[in-house]
Please model this.
Amino acid sequence: MRLERGLIVSCQARADNPLHGPRFMGAMALAARDGGAVGIRANGPEDIAAVRAAGLPVIGIHKVFSDDYPVYITPDFAAAQAIVAAGAEVVALDCTPRPRDGESPAVLVRRIREELGAEVFADISTLDEGLAAADWGATYVATTLSGYTEATRPKPAGPDLALLEGLARRLSVPVIAEGRFNTPALVRRGFEAGAHAVVVGTMITNPREITRMFIAEGVPR
Ligand SMILES: CC(=O)N[C@H](C=O)[C@@H](O)[C@H](O)[C@H](O)COP(=O)(O)O
Model:
């Protein structure tokens, strides 16, 4: 198991974000490391190669968007292969049963472990999806997609602590808390609910979104 108990920082910025690109995401990863993170989550081969400079385990994802199906987090084997080649030791992928254009997540989990020799981080949205992913051989199961699937909408304001607790009670693989852990107190509650590690993205690495949150609270502008 590559991921230690602790805080994992997600360093991601989409193409429309002024901080998009490996230079900025690499710097974010160094800052997160210096602040005490035990791992980095990053998107796409370029950013993954850049965040490796922090010397922490990298959970790689490869977001590939399609008009034809809803799955976008590492939707197929080629996407996984590209991020492992860029240096991800752990591959995160959508393990929901939603339609996709290719192999099932069960097959992908096996192939990523056997053919790429990488650990698998299962992004799921419900207890049943988490139990299934662990059965397929996922190394970690994470609450990442809670609030983002038909089964779990509308998205609540806070993290899905009930799902986290349920997974931690039922699974022997490490359970990771991810999604809307926006304060240190919530992160602590994640560990109390049984998380092995907690992933924080937006509130650490997305200054545009953080600024919007301040403005939304009625700040004059
Ligand atoms: C649903 C989805 O696509 N989640 C993505 C997964 O990589 C990221 O956009 C999130 O920022 C990440 O999960 C961390 O969550 P938060 O930013 O809430 O701390």
